[in-house]
Structure formats: C-alpha cells, structure tokens
C-alpha cells in the first residue's frame, strides 16, 4: 500500500533554519509529483508547490516563491521542504501529498508536520 | 485562478441532502477535486476530475460540473460526514484551494 510519512513536529525560534521531510514508499517515487500544502492555525489549505523527483522539476505558488525550497532525494524516496530563516508567521501544519498523475489530485497524504516558530 | 466555495458553513441533520458549490474565476474544464478534512487529520480525496469517485469513498458522495461551476453533493448525510470540505483546481501550473465549507450538526 502506498504510504507517505512525514517527519515529526518541530519547535524553532525566528531566524532559525529548518528542513522537514516526506518519505514515500510502495510506489515508484520518481514517476509521481509530490506537493506541499500549508494549513495555518484554524485556517484553510494553501498549495505551496510541487516537485517531480524524476528530474527535480519544481513549481512554487506565488506566495511561497523565494520563501521556501522544495527538493527531493531519489535514492531514499524522500521529499523535503526547507526554510533558511523562519518567521513566526510560518507556524502551521505542513502536509505533503502524492499527485496521482499530471493535472491530477492529491491522492495520498502524509500525516502532517506541525512547525511552531516562537521566541 | 480563484476558487469560491459557498456556503462557508452550514448546519444539517443526519439524513439531509447537502450541496456545496465551488466557482472558479476562469475556466478549469473538469480539473476540479474535492477533499474532506476532519479536525486533527490530513485531508482525504473524495472526488477527482469533477465527478469521479475516489476508490473506497461511499457512493452518497457525488460531484458534478465543468468549466467554472461545480457541486459536491452528499445524498444522505451521515454522522461521520461532519467535517470541512475543500475544492481544489489542478488545471494550471498554479494550483489553488477553495476557502472551505464546514458542515456542522444541526
């Protein structure tokens, strides 16, 4: 069965860097896009961007371009979302999810990673 | 592309027929998906390509529409259906979600 498992909760201070992970299993990692979605406390879902691990082709949503970096390591079937300098406003749950096919939906979701940024 | 869901919230009883709409700011053909999210849980795919039922999802859920206007219908609301529902478009390189519709118990 397809699985997408994310890294655990993080508590960071403003200005710190962070990289969270999303490990996929039971499917061909390089043949499916993986996306990231933000959910701020009590708010809705926001598409951040996605990556095609086969060639590292990456797209970002306008609000996230330049704010985060999405990457992938094919050798361990893992995608990443990273920040170089966190802000308090980055506090949120971050989900990764597999995209079923080109222009298709998110079909398998990770459990979410809570990132708390506080001084 | 903006997606506008209505209503933002609704109260309904078990057994009710519930309809949620999603309007796109420009044509998205049928590149429209619906998700259900319960508190503390990841979203779950219900409907893809506007009207296709995801495997394992009960048949009381259905989707319709094309171009700019879409509908998610729950034919007979069950206790486990109280949740927040989101539409999402995948027609372009920039994806978006609707703002969500919270379905509460009346």
Considering the chains and any ligands shown, give keywords for the structure:
heterodimer; A: 119 residues; mainly beta; four-stranded antiparallel beta sheet; B: 106 residues; seven-stranded mixed beta sheet; 50% strand
Oligomeric category: heterodimer
Per DSSP, the total helix count of chain A is: 0
Largest interface (CB within 8 Å) is between: A-B, 23 and 24 residues
Overall average residue pLDDT of chain B: 97
Unreliable spans of chain A are none
Q: Calculate the mean pLDDT score of chain A and round it.
A: 97
For the termini of chain A, the CA-CA separation is 41 Å
Characterize the largest beta sheet of chain B: strand count, sense, and whether it forms a barrel: 7 strands, mixed
Q: What best-fitting shape of chain B do the alpha-carbon axes yield?
A: globular
Number of helices of chain B: 0
Question: Helical percent range of chain B?
Answer: under 10%
Strand residues, percent of chain B: over 45%
């Amino acid at each position: 069965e397809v699985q997408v498992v994310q890294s655990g909760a993080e508590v960071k201070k403003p200005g710190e860097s962070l990289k969270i992970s999303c490990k996929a299993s039971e499917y061909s990692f390089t043949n499916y896009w993986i996306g990231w979605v933000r959910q701020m406390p009590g708010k809705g879902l926001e598409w951040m961007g996605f990556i095609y691990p086969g060639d590292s082709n990456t797209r970002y949503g306008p609000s996230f371009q330049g704010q985060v970096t999405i990457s992938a390591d094919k050798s361990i079937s893992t995608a990443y979302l990273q920040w170089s300098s966190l802000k308090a406003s980055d506090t949120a749950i971050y989900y990764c999810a597999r995209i079923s096919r080109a222009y298709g939906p998110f079909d398998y979701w990770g459990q979410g990673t809570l990132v708390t940024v506080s001084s | 592309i903006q997606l506008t869901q209505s209503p933002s919230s609704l109260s309904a009883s078990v057994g009710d027929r519930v309809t949620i709409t999603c309007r796109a700011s420009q044509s998205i053909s049928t590149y429209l998906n619906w998700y259900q999210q319960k508190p503390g849980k990841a979203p779950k795919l219900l409907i893809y390509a506007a009207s296709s039922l995801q495997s394992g999802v009960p048949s009381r859920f259905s989707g319709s529409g094309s171009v700019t206007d879409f509908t998610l219908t729950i034919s007979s609301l069950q206790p486990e259906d109280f949740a927040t529902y989101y539409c999402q478009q995948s027609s372009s390189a920039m994806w978006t979600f609707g703002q969500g519709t919270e379905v509460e118990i009346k």
